[in-house]
Each structure stands twice: as structure tokens, then as C-alpha cells.
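Entry 12.
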Amino acid sequence: MRKIIDAVYSAIERVMRYLTMILLVLMVIIVFANVVSRYYLHASLAWSEEVARFMLVWLVFIGSFLAYIHDEHLGLDILVTKFPPTLRKIVGFFTNLLIIFALYAVMEGGYLLMRDNFDWLSPAAEIPQGYVYFVVPFVCGLMIVQAVLKTYYLLAGTNQRQGGSSC
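Predicted 3D structure (C-alpha cells):
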């Protein structure tokens, strides 16, 4: 079962990494095209700033997911590392529960934001805002799954595939 979970999660991570690369390359191309258009053709691409901003939003959320997989978010563990292993496991468990609760709250709010804004079009690109906000519940859902896996690995006493423990 663990091999299946790891294989699925490796595939998801790979897709997210490629999506990040594609979004970043497209964002650079769009912004560069706008700069060239503005300075050499004396005509600005009206939609380019909006689309680049939307891509940046997606990059931030996908990047936060990738950072969470590998425990690369900023954390203060000075005190926790001095705890005995049992207490460290308890603190890690409650930390993961708090993370799951916070992610669920953000996911629910993001879903409501996404649902309520599909009729609202962005001014220049005329993209429904719901597509922009879709990244919030999507990434938060993936992070909740990762938090549950981290909690399981913590309680089972096994090392995670991706990185260290939460504490």
C-alpha cells in the first residue's frame, strides 16, 4: 500500500514541478513580449500584466505545496529538538492536526471564493476569476493529504518518502 501511495505522490509531485516550470517560462515570455511590444512597437499588450499576475498566484501556491512536501517551510524547532522522542511525536501529531485544520479552513474559503467568482471576468484578459482561485482549494486539498500522510508516518514511526518529520 505504501508503495502505491508513494508512486501516486511522486507522480503528483512530478506534474506539479513541470507545471511550475511551464508557468514560469510562460510568465517570462509574456512579460518579455510585453516589454518588447511596449518599447519597440509602442503598443502594450493589455492582458499580459493580468495573466502574469494570475500565473504568479498559481506559482506561489504550487511552490508552497512543493515546499511542504519536502519540509522546506520556515519552522522553529529549537525547543522541540530537545524533547524526548515520545514528546516530540506528540507535539508533531498536534502540529499536524493544527496544520490540517488551518488548511481545511483555507480550502473551504478558497472554494467559496472560486465558486462565487466564475461569473466575474478579469478586465483585460476576460478570464473568469474562478479559474484563478481554483488553485486555492486544489493545492490545499493536496496539502491536507500530505499532512495526513505525515501524521500517519509520524505515528507509525517510519520515515517519510519525501523529507523529514514535521518536528
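Annotation: The chain has one domain: 2-156. The two ends are 25 Å apart (CA to CA).
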